[in-house]
Design a protein that fits this description.
Blueprint lengths: L2 H5 L11 H20 L2 H7 L9 H28 L14 H22 L3 H4 L12 H34 L1 H15 L5 H21 L3 H20 L2
Length: 240
């Protein structure tokens, strides 16, 4: 067998040290594509408006996208980790980790991220897309409900990007390569969003990837990422 035949052999692709990275790298595009085509509010509005909650298709579409993200990005990777890899979720950042560093990183990053969302809240590109539930600014109570349910999406997203992908590839490819692969996938996922959000996702992928590995936890980046999304919606809804 020549080198070309050996390099393309399927033997061992899903065994030994190749099993986990192969599974992660194959599932990543499948999960992202499935969400993009079937998990968004746009898909709900195009196909499922016959089913609504609170007689409000716009709100139902937002909830649909939040929980589609939780299931596709969160639940499916968790099942793979537990049933296929037979590993602990703690090894994928589902733990407190280095909480002193973690909370320090939140204290440093959160104010910066919140401040950076204010200019975006005046950008027509962002105004055309956010908040996902256009009625989120109807009242303080509605906004709080929107923000709370929005957390479901961020739980799934961080479990997928920084947990399943980044921790899942760490052993095989090393810390920096795992962060870089996660950053590439995260940036590509944002295509179709405002240009500023795409470029920010590249910087965020790198910085948050480092924080996750340093703190050994997804919690602190999850908090900051959620605050970023919620603060953008808040500024759009209430700060005129």
């Amino acid at each position: 067998m020549n080198r070309f035949d050996t390099s393309l052999s399927l033997q061992g692709l899903f065994s030994g040290e190749n099993k986990k990275p192969t599974t992660v790298l194959l599932l990543a595009p499948v999960i992202v594509t499935t969400y993009k085509y079937f998990g968004t509010k746009a898909f709900y509005m195009a196909h499922w408006t016959s089913f609504t909650l609170f007689n409000n298709p716009d709100w139902t579409g937002a909830i649909y996208s939040f929980f589609a993200g939780l299931i596709l990005f969160g639940l499916i990777p968790i099942l793979i980790i537990k049933l296929v890899f037979r590993e602990s979720l703690a090894d994928y950042g589902v733990r407190l980790g280095d909480w002193k560093f973690g909370w320090l990183s939140v204290a440093v990053m959160a104010p910066v991220m919140i401040a950076l969302t204010f200019p975006s809240s005046r950008d027509p590109e962002f105004l055309a897309q956010y908040p996902l539930f256009q009625g989120a600014g109807a009242s303080a109570s509605v906004f709080i409900e929107h923000a709370f349910l929005y957390l479901a999406y961020y739980l799934g997203y961080e479990m997928f990007m920084r947990g399943f992908i980044q921790f899942g590839l760490r052993e095989r490819f090393g810390d920096w390569n795992a962060i870089l692969i996660q950053t590439v996938i995260s940036a590509l996922f944002h295509i179709g969003k405002p240009a500023g959000e795409i470029y920010s996702s590249i910087l965020g992928g790198l910085i948050w990837g480092i924080v996750v590995f340093r703190s050994r936890s997804l919690l602190y980046v999850l908090i900051v990422h959620w605050l970023l999304g919620v603060s953008l919606d808040y500024f759009i809804c209430f700060v005129k």
